[in-house]
Amino acid sequence: MTVIDSTTPTARTDLCKAAPPAHPRPDGQDRYTISEVVVFTGLSAHTLRWYERIGLMPHVDRSHTGQRRFSNRDLDWLAFVGKLRLTGMSVADMVRYAELVREGEHTFEARAALLERTRRDVVDRLTELHDTLAVLDHKIQFYADARTTATVRE
Q: Rounded to whole angstroms, how far apart are CA atoms 122 and 138?
């Protein structure tokens, strides 16, 4: 699979299985307030501002009055950051990844290495969860068998 950042224009194709969600507005008319982004993403305004402050969010455009105006590209980035959060990637690593994206295409190798390390961590966690699920299934079956045995005795 080729890894593509929605913030880095490129001719490569992303082979993700899931199609990206349709944006509420077409490109060029995609100026969202922070309140709208809160609704679309489920993130709080405080979190969005924090992401921007720590360098996790790329530069967010501002209106002539200084209000943040997010784009579809920003929404795509936030969706990707949400996936990174689900992997358990540290905030420091997410910020580092964002810095690498801003530095340009010459950082592809470093970005890939960071994502590969995160992928290995996710696979390890999945293995642990699978083992945990097997233990739970065993215990559930034990109690189901115990109920059946108790009912037969009565």
A: 24
